[in-house]
Design goal:
- Helix content is 78%, strand content 0%.
- The chain is mostly helical and 93 residues long.
- It folds into two domains: 33 residues; 46 residues.
- It comes from Brassica campestris.
- It is found in: Endoplasmic reticulum membrane.
- Its main location: endoplasmic reticulum.
- This is Reticulon domain-containing protein.
């Protein structure tokens, strides 16, 4: 389990770096030059997902559970304090 988690952590680190580089390139390179990269990505991602569906499914489930717990913390700490409903704004004639 330890080696598996370290592999996922390394993969996430690489993907985060790659995503940052891709976003930077997206800002610097015109759209028409990025189309081949997006085309290749759109055709390889489904194949990789099918190959590693179980690992990806478990990983996504763990990410969703973490997101849900962070949202609960934020909801109890901040979002629940925001008043809901209509505000009593007065019209000034």
């Amino acid at each position: 389990m330890s080696s598996s988690s370290s592999v996922w952590e390394a993969l996430l680190c690489i993907l985060k770096g790659k995503a940052a580089i891709e976003l930077w390139l997206a800002a610097m390179i015109p759209y028409r030059l990025q189309l081949p990269n997006w085309f290749v990505g759109a055709h390889t991602m489904p194949v990789l997902y099918e190959k590693y569906e179980d690992e990806v499914g478990g990983f996504v489930d763990s990410l969703l559970m973490k997101f849900h717990s962070h949202y609960k913390k934020m909801d109890t700490g901040f979002l629940s304090r925001i008043p809901s409903g209509r505000f009593g704004f007065k019209k000034h004639d």
